[in-house]
Amino acid sequence: xxxxxxxxxRWWDSRxxxxxxxxxxxHFILSGAGTYREDPHLIADAYPDIVALSALLASPELRxxxxxxxxxxxxxxxxxxxx
Length: 83
Description:
The protein has helices spanning 2-13, 18-25, 40-58, 71-82. By secondary structure, the chain is mostly helical. It has one domain.
């Protein structure tokens, strides 16, 4: 779960998924209020994504796909992570 949380924070910090994150935060934070890294509102908003990615990383079927040497397996893993 820690690895999944680290990946998610990196994605959000990269600003690539900022729109999706900000859209979700509207449900938790009053307009104009700021947030900080350990803000419980951020964690509540991120929790479903972190849990979903944790399940993928823990899956016996999927977690080894990037290491098989097969481009198809690696592609499947990337598709599942993106989803």
